[in-house]
Amino acid sequence: MSSLRCGAALNRGLTEAMAADERVYLLGEDVLDPYGGAFKISTGISDRWPDRVISTPISEASLVGIAAGMAIQGYRPVLEIMFGDFITLGFDQIVNGISKFREMYNDQVRLPLVVRTPMGGRRGYGPTHSQSLEKFLIGVPNITVVATSEIHDLGAMMRAAVEDDEPVFLVENKVMYGRPNRRPESGRLDGFSVRESDGPYPALTLSASGFSAGTATIATYGGTVPLAIDAATELIMEHEVFCEIVVLGSLLPLDLDPVLESVERTGALIVAEEGTMTAGIGAEIAARVQEAAWDDLRAPVRRVAAADGIIPSAPGLEDAMLPSVPELVDAALRCEAARV
Amino acid sequence: MSAPLAATEWFRRMLFIRRFEETLLEMFSKGLLVGTTHTCIGQEADAVGVIDHLEPGRDVVVSNHRCHGHYIAFTDDPSGLMAEVMGRVGGTCAGRGGSQHLCRDGFYTNGVQGSIVPLASGMALAERERGGGGAVTVFIGDGTLGQGAVYECMNMAALWSLPLLIVVENNQYAQTTPVEIAVAGSIPDRARAFGITAVELDGRDAPAIHAAAGELLSTVRTGAPAVLVIDTYRLRAHSKGDDVRDPAEVAARERTDALAVVSQQLEPAERERIMAEVESALADCVATAEASPIAVGSAA
Q: Distance (Å, rounded) from C-alpha B300 to C-alpha A138?
């Protein structure tokens, strides 16, 4: 299991979900074998279940609604949106349909559907194929937004999303696909102690000091997780500063308890995400934490995020606008400075 | 395919929808209702003629903001609709949806133009997979033809052999915009470009709507999607009072609409009898709705 790459782990979970329930259908562009989707998450599925895989035209605006219609009628569609950037085309169906139906129709319908899509940059794909747009999804009531990461049990997360009776938007990450799906062993990962919460989309809390007092909590998710781990490691090795990292699984509803528990120990919070900063997920976390744990905080909540602008294509330009390890280290050192 | 309807039955069903919506407009003008409503006055034959071929439990209907006639024809639950518009707990959606967001026994409406066609297509895909011979009928208007999702779905419906009937009620105006400045070319030809069978007819001819819908639905059920374009006319405002059309144009259509045509075919005594029965049923419907408590939320 430890050697499986994240993309393969997701594929395994999806394959198991298809095998477990014949109401599960896969829809998307270029999902048929031998291609198996642009990032290969759907590989092997159409060969095995040709009648339950539907290769679609490039019609995201309709496909999200088609998934909703199937779900209301008792099926469990999994819709692959090839790049997260394209989910904007489906937003009418998300905001005015999927978000509305169950509550607006007075609980007469359910929408057990999954929309899964890769977000994130660092591959040089440029402004319209590199974004992290999940912050727009967390503004939509009545949906679940799940962030996968390379230290989550990705197969279990995928199966949980497909088995969920509510609509789930599964946010994946392009760089993550090629990295090993690393899991804590005996409560340890990369020299950190790890606690994992219960539930289908757990949060993992990593501590460099055995969950004793630290300098700051870094709350993050998805593709920013390896940066946070690198930053926390550098902070220990070069600055003797000990941080906790909370890796969120559920962005909506926002899984705040692990963050609050960590902040109670560390007294400071850094929120880190790859999306642009303004009105980001970090802003929502910061607002809620200061409201709930003002007495625990000894420094302002710090945000690390992409600059408000486009994600340029050239690697040197892209690196400059996306969040980085040095920015995380700097934020933690500022929290450390506030201790004295 | 259902047998043709007798003139008395056309009259009874269409008149009930007409009087139901006139009652809503009266209640709005008296300040008894809040929010908005969109009446299908003048278009009742579309609902009655198409939906006579559909069965709750087997078939699905997806409709739009102008949905009352479709709802009444399909569900036989007018008091649920009345209570919904009145914001009562006994309403179809307990007051959460209001006039244009209804759900009951395979009947669904939503208020964004075009968005319902993808929803209906997904439901048709479910029906295809279930294999029970059910059809999904989605009602749109000429205004909705401006939405790209409609054509995405025509494409997929044809490619995937979906049991989907798209009924285009061309009532000549999208709110205030005449069809001539909003829709280029031929409406049925738009569907034919996808290899979809399309029929266009005059909505004043109620039996023709019934016959065409029955014929199309029999092939729709086998997986051949179809489009039925009904050229009709809305005799009242888009919603409650926002009408900028020439009153003479509206009056001319009022004399020739499907309900007027059917009414003229009846003996006066028969007409009077049915009108009295409809008024009685409508009074019962209003009384049932008014007996339901007003929906009240609790503070968050």
A: 19
Backbone phi and psi for residue B265, each to the nearest 5 degrees, phi listed first: -85, -10
Token pair recorded at residue A323: 């969040």
Q: CATH 3.40.50.920 spans which residues of chain A?
A: 188-337
What mean pLDDT comes out for the span A241-270? 97
Q: Is B129 on the interface with A (CB under 8 A)?
A: yes
Residue type, B65: H
For B38, the token pair is 């969109």
A94 in contact with B, Cβ within 8 Å? no
Taking contacts as CB-CB distances below 8 angstroms, the residues of chain B near A99 are: none
Residue B227 forms beta bridges with which residues?
Answer: B166, B198
**What does the pLDDT read at residue B241?**
79
Q: A1: pLDDT confidence band, cut at 50, 70 and 90?
A: very low
Q: Does domain B7-58+114-288 have CATH number 3.40.50.970?
A: yes
Per-residue pLDDT band at A49 (split at 50, 70, 90): very high
Q: Report the SS3 class of residue A260.
A: helix
For A6-177, which CATH class?
alpha beta
Q: What average pLDDT does range B93-98 have in this prediction?
A: 95
Each residue's pLDDT tens digit, A90-104: 999 999 999 999 999
Q: In chain A, which residues fall in CATH 3.40.50.970?
A: 6-177
Question: What distance, in Å, lies between the first and last C-alpha atoms of chain B?
Answer: 50
Query: Would you place residue B12 in the very low, low, confident or very high pLDDT band (cuts 50, 70, 90)?
Result: very high
User: Of the candidates B103, B63, B56, B62, which has an alpha carbon nearest to the alpha carbon of residue B80?
Assistant: B103
The rounded distance, in Å, linking the Cα atoms of A16 and A6 is 15
Q: Which amino acid is at A233?
A: T
pLDDT single digits (tens) A167-200: 999 999 999 999 999 999 999 999 999 999 999 9
User: Residue A175: which H helix or E strand, with range?
Assistant: helix A174-177
Question: Measured between alpha carbons, how far is A171 from B249 in angstroms, rounded to an integer?
Answer: 55
Question: Which sign does the torsion angle of CA B56, B59, B62, B67 carry?
Answer: negative
CATH of domain A188-337: 3.40.50.920
Beta strands in B11-59 (DSSP E): none
Q: Using the Cα atoms of residue B51, residue B53, residue B56 and residue B60 in order, give the sign of their dihedral.
A: negative
Question: B99, B91, B97: which is closest to B240 by C-alpha?
Answer: B99
- Which residue numbers of A are catalytic? 129
* pLDDT of res. A263: 98
Confidence of residue A340 (pLDDT cuts 50, 70, 90): low
Q: Which helix (H) or strand (E) holds A302?
A: strand A302-306
For Cα atoms A234, A235, A237, give the angle at the middle one, nearest 5 degrees: 60
Selected residue of A66, A101, A103 to mutate for chain B interface (largest B Cβ count, 10 A): A66
Across-strand partners of A195? A205
pLDDT number for residue A213: 84
Which residues on B lie below 8 Å from A100 (Cβ)? Answer: 101, 110
CA distances from A157 to A28, A47, A75 (A): 20, 23, 20
Write the burial class of residue A337 (CB in 10 Å: 0-12 exposed, 13-18 middle, 19+ buried). Answer: exposed
